[in-house]
Design goal:
The protein is α/β, with parallel strands linked by helices. It has 15 helices and 18 strands. The protein is globular, with a radius of gyration of 23 Å.
Length: 444
């Protein structure tokens, strides 16, 4: 049993929200729970706290599985568990890397908790890489997205493999008329926790404005709008992968510190883009709806709809990337001369943003620059090692260093922009933890 107060302290949180408290209470009983709550309300913690509570540290085999629709959500959810600083062993399993490499890590880690996408989890179960004989808890996060992405067959196959499940928790940020048909095979009775009526609280924390583009090509209007926004972390949503590349190339050519993000990119490039945006080394993330769910980046203050989504649910999920928890956010709609607002926005209170005072595009510089280090966990490198290296060898203070991430083969560190040139001079030819390696500004 883990101490709740210690877990909250490790996460830097004073207390659970009413929604999380209700989930914590409801999950004390065996059976199923359907949790419906708005984006940004803390659903990951809502299921992680009871999951940790129900774990038996003396059982070394797999006890709980968290099924998620995307690799980013798998990685992010596992990271939240790690920040709780429990002794539980976990792993995230997803596409973008070989199953053989994951199998090796499974054997090495012997996870008690797994975060996985449906297809990859089925693959490991079919090959016998995971033993689910003692798995008693299954969480299906963003279950509506799993249905939308066509995972019904994968979920059917998945649930047939679990024989000892007595707890099943489903989460969603949109209302669900009925529990998915594939859940019936578990023969579990579900209770429902609905906090979607609280969505009005989110609407009170966001302001929606429209930027009218005088030309069919809306890129110049986007440039002026982001000039107005300044250095605030912003996500620009478009409808197509090709549009991501086009918009990103325009912003970079105008001097914006922007990164591109979509499902057609290699995983390493996607991870680099997210790191730069999360760490404050890039102000703008240009993305498809891949970034509309699961990404928890509290610093995001602005969401721009370069292309309007077809459905109200997609609009809600995009907007949920800002105004996380109790923060406030701005929503901008860029409308071309031949475009019209969708029907689902007719009742919304929308004012027009006057961009006439912005006569030229002038990008704001981000606070940090990302430094790449060619060593990682396999070399026994830790975040503390990276921090100590830049302070001792680079002459920095801890306050000059932002986010540090250490992967298997590499590490990233965010350094204040004004300090980078001097730091790189100081650490030239220096070894980190006794190891010689490449240290440079992250390449695009």
């Amino acid at each position: 049993m883990f101490d709740k107060e210690s877990l909250l302290k490790n996460l830097g949180i004073a207390s659970l929200t009413p929604m999380q408290c209700q989930m914590d209470e409801q999950t004390r009983h065996k059976g199923g729970v359907v949790l419906l709550s708005p984006t940004g309300s803390g659903k990951t913690l809502a299921y992680l706290f009871p999951l940790v509570r129900e774990m038996n540290t003396e059982i070394t085999s797999l006890q709980a599985v968290v099924v998620v629709p995307t690799r980013e959500l798998a990685q992010q959810s596992e990271e939240v568990l790690k920040r709780m600083k429990t002794s539980l062993r976990s792993i995230s399993l997803h596409g973008g890397r070989s199953t053989m490499e994951e199998h090796r890590k499974i054997k090495e880690i012997k996870p008690q908790v797994v975060f996985a996408t449906p297809g990859r989890l089925n693959d490991h179960l079919a090959k016998g890489n995971l033993d689910c004989l003692l798995t008693t808890t299954i969480v299906i996060d963003e279950f509506d997205k799993c249905l939308e992405l066509g995972f019904q067959e994968e979920m059917n196959q998945l649930l047939l493999k679990f024989r000892s499940i007595d707890r099943c928790w489903l989460t969603s940020a949109t209302d669900a008329e009925e529990i998915p048909a594939f859940m019936s095979m578990l023969k579990i009775k579900f209770a429902k926790i609905n906090f979607l009526e609280k969505e009005t609280e989110l609407k009170e924390r966001i302001t929606i404005k429209r930027a009218l583009s005088p030309e069919k090509d809306k890129l110049p209007t986007l440039g002026r709008l982001l000039t107005l926004v300044g250095s605030k972390a912003s996500i620009v949503f478009v409808s197509y992968r090709e549009s991501v590349d086009r918009v990103w190339k325009y912003l970079v050519s105008e001097g914006f510190s922007a990164v591109a993000y979509h499902g057609g990119m290699e995983q390493e490039m996607r991870e680099r883009a997210l790191y730069k945006f999360r760490s404050g080394s890039a102000n703008v993330l240009v993305s498809t709806d891949l970034a509309a769910r699961g990404l928890d980046i509290p610093e995001v203050r602005v969401v721009v709809h370069y292309h309007m989504p077809l459905k109200a649910e997609e609009f809600t999920h995009r907007n949920g990337r800002t105004a996380r928890w109790n923060a406030e956010g701005m929503i901008y709609l860029i409308q071309g001369p031949t475009e019209h607002l969708p029907e689902y926005l007719e009742s919304e209170e929308i004012t027009d943003e006057d961009l006439s005072q912005i006569t030229c595009v002038k990008p704001a510089s981000p606070k940090y620059v990302t430094i790449y280090i060619g060593r990682g966990k396999r070399d026994k490198l830790s975040k503390a090692d990276v921090l100590g290296f830049f302070c001792k060898k680079g002459g920095l203070k801890a306050t000059n260093i932002g986010r540090i991430d250490v992967g298997s083969h590499y590490a990233y560190a965010a350094i204040e922009r004004g300090k980078v040139k001097d730091v790189l001079k100081r650490i030239a030819n220096e070894k980190i933890k006794g190891m010689k390696t490449l240290i440079e500004v992250m390449r695009k």
